Amino acid sequence: MVRSKWLKLPLSFDTDKLQHELHKLAPHEWINHMNTQAYDKRWCCVPLYAVNGDPLSIYAFDDDAHYLPTPILARCNYFQEVIDTFKCDKAGVRLMSLAAGDHILPHSDGYSDYQSGLVRLHIPIQTDPRVIFTVDGETIHFSIGNVWYLNAVCTHGVENHSAQDRIHLLIDCRRNDWIDALFLQAGYQADTPPIYGDPTINDENVLAIIGALKHQGANAVAAQLQQIYRARQR
Prior knowledge:
21% of the residues lie in helices and 30% in strands. The chain has 234 residues and is α+β, with helices and mostly antiparallel strands. The strands form two sheets. Strands 1, 2, 3, 4, 5, 7, 10 and 12 form an eight-stranded antiparallel β-sheet that branches. It has a four-stranded antiparallel β-sheet with strand order 6-11-8-9, with no helix packed on it.
C-alpha cells in the first residue's frame, strides 16, 4: 500500500541543469530560516515565488496573500521551466538548504497536506543518501532530481549526515484536477477516517451494533450510525 506520508511522483528533472541554476544565486540571497530553534548550523532559503514577489519574504503559506515570481527567478530559466511543469496555482516556491552535518528537529506544518488542499513537493537538487527524512517515525531518502510529496502535517525532521549542504526545491501547490491526476498516476491512496468513526464497525456488523446500542439506551449514537448506514445504501 502506498503511504500518504510521502509519495514519489512520476516526474523527474535534469540534475545538471538544476545544479547549474544554483551558481546564479548570490550568497546574500540565501535567507536564514526564522525558526532558529530547529537547527544548529544553517537552514536557509531563497524565495522564488513569494508574497507579492518579495525576495525577502520566506513565509511558506498565507491563504490571503498573492504569490508572485521574485526577481531572482527571472534569471533562472530552468527553475522557471520546472515550476511551470506543475499546472496549478503555487502558494510559495523556495530553495531550501540544510548545512552539512546539520539537522532540522521534528516538527509539523499543520496546513500542508493533500487532504487540506496544499500539496508540498520536494525536488532534491543537491543531496546524498546520508540525507534522511524521518516522518512519523519512519525514514526515507528523497532521491535527486525526482519529485516527492511530503505530508508536512506529519511530524517530520531531517538529518544531513553528508559532507555537503542539502538543497531542495520546494513547491507548495494548491490542489486541483491536474494535481489529482498526477497523484492518481502515482498510485496515491489517502489515509481516510473510518466510515463509522470506529475501525471495528463496518457495513456487515453495523446493524447488529445499532440494535445493541438501542438495547443499551444509547439511542443518539445508534441514530448517528443508522444515518451513515442509510446514506451508504442510497
